[in-house]
Write a structure and sequence with these properties.
heterodimer, A: 7-stranded antiparallel β-sheet, 2 helices, 20 strands, B: alpha+beta, elongated
């Protein structure tokens, strides 16, 4: 019975939906996290009667065909890259991007990863690093005796040192943008990697055309909206239940067929 | 007498097909732009059966066609700037490798060249039949109700929403796409609105589908009962005839 398999595809799709929603809720407080959505597509159709086929020599055509669908599949899980709200932290090395763009991070493998999470720290050599200790590109070193760090909107990093009233420039933060941000592949730890779908990165200085600006002392919160996630969860759960009802009905009908007296 | 058995069987086969279609509706209850379907039944008159009382008409149950309800699905807000929903009639035009396809699923995105594509990566066409290329660095993309795509203050293109005189000859090809099987030409729609940041949900009414399912399952049991009593009849006929000898 096709209905059994069709309903099974429906249950599998809703399970994926719940997994995506639960990941959104789990990352509600993750800095720079972008919510994801599972979108579905119908599967192939089996055509029993072709619509538009000729039904007689006189040129009459079949007005409606008979097509039976095979269920549903996950078309894509896509990221909704809208701006998250800015949370003030007061930490001098916390930066948030207001607008488009990603910070570049050097992975231990030598590859470059991209992140929206700008909650940076310094390592034992005074270099600007992410929460995982990966170097922020281009690298910069904050002197040990720095009394103050100022990061401008355009990403210029200046430090004030004792005995020197004028701040010294120690580096310039750069941003990377992509043609298709949704095509970046998530690597975990708030990091993304470039793919063929995302296109090659375009790097530039914050505030340039098409690039966001840097806010110092803020972090970008996730763009997950708790209420809509919970509503989506309820919808997914009910849809799952309905598909399981189809399975039990199909099973019931098969049972009836088996009991017909011969 | 076997005719009753075969008529019951024809009904059961249609019921199974009906359940397959209900199952597909329910499985796609959360699919953007999905349109609910229903099986239309017909009677298939066969040659009259000749009995002792003379010819008796027999009518089998058959499948006539799958009717699609192209009614509006509920719009839901997603916040993604390239999610589009059509409020009213019409379809977006999509250039698939196998030819022109039509869809109500406006879950679009940009590919690596900045071309507006569907989930499956097929270009979405404008009113001139060309693909639409956006440059994300030029600023916010806004799409007006009539489908005009503007970036910053520059007009880029106008999305085409088209409709057909007869929708029943459209064929589903999966992936939320439709194919035109007749030679009618799509015409641009004027009175539909395109909503940005929204997706059209399916128009599956879950309560209706569940009650249809109950009906199907009960009708199936009924048919099984008829077939049972039919078999009882034959049995007792055989027994009586044995005795009469």
């Amino acid at each position: 019975m096709q209905a059994l398999r069709t309903a099974a595809t429906g249950m599998a799709a809703q399970q994926l939906n719940v997994e995506v929603i639960s990941n959104n809720i789990a990352n509600m407080n993750t800095v720079g996290f972008k919510k994801q959505r599972a979108e579905f597509q119908d599967l192939l159709y089996q055509t029993m009667v072709q619509a538009g086929a000729q039904s007689s020599d006189q040129g009459n055509i079949v007005p409606t065909g008979v097509q039976v669908g095979a269920g549903v599949k996950a078309g894509s899980v896509y990221r909704i890259d809208t701006q998250g709200t800015m949370t003030q932290t007061g930490n001098k090395l916390d930066t948030a991007i207001d607008g488009r763009g990603y910070f570049q991070v050097l992975l231990p493998t030598g590859e470059t990863a991209y992140t929206r999470a700008g909650n940076f720290s310094v390592n034992d050599q005074g270099q600007l690093v992410t929460q995982d200790g990966y170097l922020v590109q281009p690298t910069m070193t904050i002197p040990q005796d720095a009394t103050n760090v100022a990061i401008s909107k355009s990403g210029q990093v200046q430090v004030t040192q004792p005995g020197n009233p004028t701040p010294t420039i120690v580096g310039q933060l750069e941003l990377a943008t992509f043609m298709n941000e949704g095509g970046l592949s998530a690597q975990g730890s708030n990091l993304f990697k470039e793919t063929a779908a995302s296109g090659a990165p375009t790097t530039g200085v914050p505030g340039d055309q098409g690039m966001g600006e840097i806010l110092q002392g803020y972090t970008e919160a996730s763009n997950v909206d708790a209420v809509s996630e919970i509503t989506a969860l309820i919808v997914a759960q009910r849809a799952y239940e309905m598909n399981s009802k189809v399975i039990s009905t199909a099973d019931n009908m098969l049972g009836v067929a088996n009991q017909i007296k011969s | 007498m076997d005719n009753a058995l075969y008529v019951g069987l024809s009904r059961q086969m249609v019921l199974r097909r009906q359940l397959d279609i209900v199952a597909n509706n329910i499985a796609n209850a959360d699919t953007a732009g999905f349109k609910v379907e229903e099986l239309q039944q017909k009677t298939n008159p066969a040659e009259p059966a000749f009995t002792l009382q003379g010819p008796r008409p027999i009518k089998f149950v058959g499948e006539d066609g799958v009717i699609r309800d192209f009614g509006q699905g509920a719009l839901r807000q997603t916040g993604a700037p390239l999610d589009l929903a059509i409020e009213g009639q019409g379809f977006f035009q999509v250039q698939a490798p196998g030819g022109m396809r039509y869809t109500r699923d406006g879950n679009f995105r940009l590919d690596d060249n900045g071309v507006l594509v569907t989930q499956g990566g097929y270009p979405v066409l404008d009113d001139g039949g060309g693909s639409i290329t956006l440059d994300p660095t030029l600023g916010q993309v806004s799409i007006s109700q009539d489908g005009t795509v503007t970036q910053g203050t520059t007009r880029i293109a106008k999305l085409a929403a088209v409709n057909f005189q007869t929708l029943s000859t459209l064929e589903k090809t999966g992936d939320n796409l439709y194919r035109n099987t007749s030679n009618q030409q799509p015409t641009p729609v004027e009175d539909s609105k395109i909503r940005q940041g929204m997706l059209e949900g399916s128009n599956v009414n879950s309560i209706l589908e569940i009650s249809k399912m109950i009906e199907i399952s009960r009708a199936y049991e009924q048919m099984a009962k008829i077939m049972d009593s039919n078999s009882e009849l034959s049995k007792s006929a055989v027994q009586r005839m044995g005795k009469a000898q």
